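Researcher: Hi, I'm a grad student and pretty new to this. My advisor asked me to get structures for two proteins we've been looking at. I'm not sure of the right format, so I'll just paste the first sequence and hope you can take it from there.
Model: That works fine. Here's the first sequence with its structure tokens right after it:
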Amino acid sequence: MASTRPTDGSPPWEEMSGLNLGDSEIDLYYGDDADLASQSLHDDTTQWCIVARVLTDKVINPKFFKDVLAKAIRPMECMVVKELGNNVFAFQFFDEMDYTRTLKDGPWNFEQCTIIMNPLQPGQNPRYVELTKLEIWIQIHDLVGALRSERVVKDIGNTLGEFQYADPKNHDSIWRDYMRVRVQIDVRNPLKKTMTIRRPGGSCIQVSFRYERLGIFCFYCGILGHTDKFCRKLWQNRGQTTEPFAYGPWLRAERRSVVMAGARWLKPENWAEERNRKDKEIPTSSGERENQGARNGEGSDPVLKNRGGNFTNFRKEGIGNGNEGEQMMENVGMGSKKERVQFMEMESENLGLVRVTEIRNGKAICV
């Protein structure tokens, strides 16, 4: 075996003194490559892509997350979601409207945790996208007079974060309770609750803020992504802080309630069975009704006590078109005693649904 030692008799460390143990310095230059430049212009791998982070320390189930977000976003075209680790995901859309709507309709929440979404720029590595800014709608309450102008709303937005745009409907009505502004806020900072504004006359007013679709946040420090149960600042100040905290659920904007026009006609699903059950419990004869009332202790019911009374203890039930009762009972009575009376179904507090006749003196009698 040949020897690798130097033949000139010099020590081996002198031979290695000039050896570079670092990476070799090799530069690849493609600045003038027309083919690569053309491919870069037509590269659509980052087109309509969004990088998102779930703002929580909890480990989430990626498969469940993908399924929930797909059902919530409901793109017209399909979408692809790739897990990048540490609760970070990359979304790829195949239609510009789906992409734009997803960003515009945010912030999205997953299990009440806020999702930060940022568009992926061409040539950008999705693993190095900064995910600390959140676009959110903020309601500005208690603005009055000239302070409701677009300029003031924009200045307030820039004070809260980075102003994006204001709600076009802000000035549709003078009776509007609040102004809406779209702001990009830094999630590392506490949420702002109020702001003091000095008017031209020298007086000051205080406006308050409400955040729409706001996820989990700490009632102690006001930072998104955790509750006071896991607040490090509260843990550091333990024993020195007492409730109530500076923040609360009131910081969330109330959801606008929708009045359903058909609600007055709708009944519960079990309404038919419940009505049939009550119909079967109606006594069929006056003797049974008296026995039922005696069993239930309704001795004070005017129908049982006097066989007549005012209609204050009854609830009228509609029957047909309103003429059927009169037609059915117009021949009640015998011989010269025959009178024209009206038949109705009423519901007594004590007897349940019963049949009564209305006589001219306004009394009710069971039949």
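Researcher: Oh nice, that was easy. Here's the second one.
Model: And its structure:
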Amino acid sequence: MTDYVHITVESNRISLECAQEAIFVVCLDHEHANPTPPENSSCLQNHEEELARRAKHLLIGGGSRANGMNRWYDATIQLIVSRNGTNGLCIEHSTAEGIVSINMAESALRYERENRKQRQMGEAEKEIHARPLSWDVNPEAVMLLEKQKATMNELTDELDLKVLIFNDFGRDFIKTHQFSPDGFVQLALQLAHFKLHGYVVCTYETASLRRYRTGRVDNIRANTMEALEWVRAMTGESSEETKLTLVRKAADKQAKVTEEIQGGYGIDNHLYALYVLAKQSLESGTIPELPVFFRDFMWNELMRFPLSTSQVFYTNFCGEQVKKKKKNNGISRSPHRLTFLTAFSAMVLLFVMDTAVRIIFRMTP
């Protein structure tokens, strides 16, 4: 827990400790105007845009000009409820992985659905009286807050969040061709990036290590040599047979990488731990400089993830993390459709789905 004994104003210290110790935070947002859909837009497009707008609202609340100041991002769980019906969770991952909070939310929603007709009223064990938190803010703090509000608005304006619902096929159809749906989408993303930029790119995808004591996560990488060989074939003059052979090879490699990482044989945690230890040794004067491995250009490239992705297994899929200057994607797979929530541009989404269609129909008998 954060120690606030250094704060001289007693009311500020008490308020900060109260916020810090809260199990979760409830954010009651004011309603804000919904944008009017274009006249020539489809029902699906309107639905996608509405989902994106709601997800963006949950994440940042429209900046300081709307509901963005009605957030406490240090809290592990923020339950956000708006007057217009938008509601959901905003999760901070430091305390626990997102899967823990999402499983809790899924259980609560399932319990509500299963017991909706009972209409039982519970009684609290003790009466709780809400009270405002008191703050004493000096002029210097006001200036700092105004500066942070400007920074928040800048980040809000930079966020480009899109939802794409792909109904042509989903998880089941991909599996009928002996493909992992996750590996399938990862390869599609690599090909989309290659078509846009001319190279494959480091990808971060969370692999849970919760099966191990104190385990958190490691990283599943998708920019393998097999993937590179395949994307080159897809954008070149190779035969259809060659492309199909190479995509199978790339998919098999991706499946093997995933199995290795989930088995505890990943490289990212191990290498980053060595890097942190080396930095600590450098700061303490134990070593004169970082080992050459950590000073090499390739180390920086290895730990730079322009593509940060996550697969979503949950029925109440809503959002995904967003980081500045990164292309982030949440992919929800249902039996008959794929749903993308992404900070990609619309052009990248089109490339991804074009890639998906080309792959799957080349495998279709």
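Researcher: Is there anything I should tell my advisor about the second?
Model: You could mention this: The two ends are 59 Å apart (CA to CA).
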